[in-house]
Design brief:
Length: about 90
């Protein structure tokens, strides 16, 4: 496989991994909220808390993705296997 194919497969795999990680983090946060805080939060404001949990899960997933890709790039020198997504203009 060429560098472009490696890049496309990595991006597709990373996207699927991001979505799965986001769902796991969101449901984990939602479970903690349901058992710990939901009885103490008024029903009118619970929808805003769930929205905050969704935004928080997106932020946590971004942080996990950033750290994981940075670690893998350093450990396995991934730059030699991938084509730059945005090539430098000459």
């Amino acid at each position: 496989m060429g560098k472009k194919a490696n890049t496309v497969l990595f991006i597709l795999g990373a996207t699927v991994g991001n979505l799965v990680t986001m769902m796991v983090v969101f449901f984990a946060l939602l479970t903690v909220f349901s058992f710990a805080l939901a009885p103490h939060v008024p029903p009118q404001s619970q929808q805003w808390v769930v929205l905050g949990l969704l935004i928080g899960s997106i932020a946590i997933t971004y942080f996990i993705y950033y750290k994981l890709v940075r670690f893998l790039t350093r450990k396995y020198d991934l730059e030699q296997h991938f084509e730059p997504i945005f090539p430098k203009k000459k």
